[in-house]
Every structure is written in C-alpha cells, then in structure tokens.
C-alpha cells in the first residue's frame, strides 16, 4: 500500500456555499473554514472533503469533452425517488438522460460538479 485516502478536494467559486450543500447531502460537519477553503468531516472527526476557492472556476459540463467532469462522487441510497427529492431541494439538478428507475441517476451540484445517487443494484 502506498497510502490511504485523506480527503477529496473540490474546486469551486464559493467554498462556504458548496460545503453547505454537501454537509446536508452527506451528513458531514465543518472541521475548518477559512473563507478560502472549508473542510468537512465525518462523525468520527476524519477529514472527508475540502472545498477550495478558485477565482477563475469553470464548471464542468456533462458529456462535454471540452469541459470534462474532473471528478464525481457516488452516494449510496436506498430509494432513488426519495433521495432525488431531497437533493433537488438542496439545489441539485437532474442531468438529461439519467432518469433511471433503479440503479443510479446523475445530478450536478449547485456549481456544476456531477454526482450520482446509486442503489445496491447500480453498484
């Protein structure tokens, strides 16, 4: 083993705003907040994801090779319809062509990063 995952770093125009979205989506809490970056931790206090300010941020576009997705997160859920209603209420957007009834659906967060809601059938 070379190492272990420490955190996922996500570029964004406003770390506070995007961290708020993922705090609710993933049941995480703030470990650090400097204004230029926000670190979210899990219940055990382990750093999980860091959002860093990028002034010239260019959002990825789903299926556009000129602006590729750069990263994404899979979120395991038990019911896609229930989870979809919750992420849409947080500001996510369902992406075209991802309206599958079971398995997975693809969304983008409030600044355009794609993420998937998946069920065990889709894993």
UniProtKB/TrEMBL annotation:
Domain VOC: 1-120
Pfam families in the cross-refs: Glyoxalase_6 (PF18029)
Name of protein: Catechol 2,3-dioxygenase-like lactoylglutathione lyase family enzyme
Organism per entry: Streptomyces avidinii
């Amino acid at each position: 083993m070379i190492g272990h995952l420490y955190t996922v770093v996500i570029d964004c125009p406003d770390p506070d705003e995007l961290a708020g979205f993922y705090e609710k989506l993933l049941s995480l809490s703030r470990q650090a907040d400097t204004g230029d970056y926000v670190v979210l931790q899990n219940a055990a206090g382990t750093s999980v994801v860091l959002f860093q300010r990028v002034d010239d941020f260019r959002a990825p576009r789903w299926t556009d090779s000129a602006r590729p997705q750069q990263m994404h997160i899979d979120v395991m859920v038990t019911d896609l319809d229930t989870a979809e209603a919750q992420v849409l209420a947080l500001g996510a957007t369902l992406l075209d062509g991802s309206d599958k009834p079971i398995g997975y659906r693809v969304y983008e967060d409030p600044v355009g990063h794609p993420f998937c809601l998946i069920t065990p059938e889709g894993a």
